[in-house]
Description:
Layout: H1 3-7, E1 10-14, H2 19-30, E2 34-39, H3 42-56, E3 60-64, H4 72-80, E4 87-90, H5 105-133, E5 136-141, H6 154-173, E6 179-185, H7 207-217, E7 223-225, H8 228-236, H9 242-257
Parallel strand pairs: 1-2, 1-4, 2-3, 4-5, 5-6, 6-7
The structure holds NADP nicotinamide-adenine-dinucleotide phosphate.
Amino acid sequence: MNIKSRYGNWALITGASSGIGKEFAHRFAEMNINLILIARREELLKSIKTDLEERFKVEIIIIPLNLTDHDFLKIITKRIEGKKVNILINNAGIGALGDFFKNDITQYEEIIKLNCIAPIVLIKHFADEMIKEGKGALIFVGSVVGILPSPRMSIYSASKAFLNTFGESLWNELSDSGIDVITIMPGSTDTEFQRLSKGKTLNIRRAKDVVNTTLKSLGKKPAAIDGLLNKLFFTGSRFFPRKLILKLSKNISDKINN
Ligand SMILES: NC(=O)c1ccc[n+]([C@@H]2O[C@H](COP(=O)([O-])OP(=O)(O)OC[C@H]3O[C@@H](n4cnc5c(N)ncnc54)[C@H](OP(=O)(O)O)[C@@H]3O)[C@@H](O)[C@H]2O)c1
């Protein structure tokens, strides 16, 4: 599929300064799609902009901001000066490890604001225009831990369950609108985010793999799990007793936490 001719030539990517978001930026720039890149670390965004503009002759707007600030949408709309966003990638996300009662409440509030509220605000604003035009793409970066409750990652896991469900519901609501919606559910992927688990994870995938799976599935299905082993485990988990699966999930998370 030719993504640019199907959806248009501007993509907005949240969490574009590293990991999966940065990989999306590379892939879209390669396809000559202009980019609006959002994250907090301005220096990283600047160097991605310089690199991609030089190599692919695309236009890139960087917007360094915190997506948990209440006025973030105002800042974005002001900076993009009426440009239409044709592809919206809700990728920025954070998590917290450890027992629910040991972490600070403000940490949980930040997770919910970034992982759940920011995508709602962005979609409500940018999908309106897509619906009027009858074309566009919405990409949700959910997670396999949204399929299976994850003890000692409970709020992160719940936030991703929210995102997975939100994305799949929108796929259905928008199925006759000309807008394609995909929820990608990565498993452990080699990014800065993995520092959380101090490298103690199995079956590590690359950001590149996640982006490949997303682009292969966009326009074809509502959701995709990245990686064969992840697919087998997380799809298969539905057929086993919940108690057993939660025990297994707890064992895995104990390994990551300790
Ligand atoms: N890596 C995995 O194993 C894995 C597995 C499943 C799902 N995921 C999901 O994949 C997505 C991308 O994560 P990643 O693995 O690529 O990790 P990452 O390299 O840590 O990327 C996270 C991105 O989010 C941005 N970000 C964090 N807090 C922000 C805030 N308050 N405002 C604006 N931007 C913010 C970060 O940029 P700044 O720090 O510059 O703001 C960074 O660009 C996340 O939603 C994560 O939940 C990751």
